[in-house]
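Final report, closing paragraph on structural work. Over the funding period we assembled a curated collection of sequence-structure pairs, and we close with a single example.
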Amino acid sequence: MLRLVFFLPFVLMPGVLSGQSIQKIDFKNHTYPLSGVLLGHGNMQWLGPENGMSPRRPIHLVGGRDMVTTEVETKGFTLESVHYGDVTGDGEEEAIVNLRYSTGGTQTTNYVYVFQVDHGQPKLLAYCHTGSRAHSGLYEAYAEDGQFVVELFDPKKAIGDCCSDGVVITRYSWTGSRFEIRGKVQERALQPSSEH
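Its predicted structure, as stored:
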């Protein structure tokens, strides 16, 4: 009977025995959906059919890259980062996956994917693209207090096309089907050396 008493707490704790963790997913070798227009972004936009976007060829990362090289340029997607934290307020970790799209020129766009784990497999909750560099390009995306926080370079404080002296911070709450803005959008100044 003592064995049963000591064993029960482990059975009741989700994920302890199953080994299901979002951190075990190999996002460097993964397929990501893609929709909408690839270039010319000047702001953040949620993507996917539910947002009226036409699907494109999926992104197939191998070793963190999905690049096409021609005689004059290399363009495509690379895995920039994966951060973990609770963005849905359920107390469980989700993954925030940041892919960077390079055009072969100076323009870049980041695609941010939010995944949770479901029966040991990644389940996409939502994804978006940001603008390019100083024009609402991605500075950082992270979890904080059960919310999804996105910091974009402030185009009003741009120093040319490459950089900005500030960021615009937007917090999103998960409704069960999508992320919605919560609270006021904030602004923060950056040090001149904070180019990202």
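The mean pLDDT is 84. The two ends are 58 Å apart (CA to CA). We thank the funder for supporting this effort.
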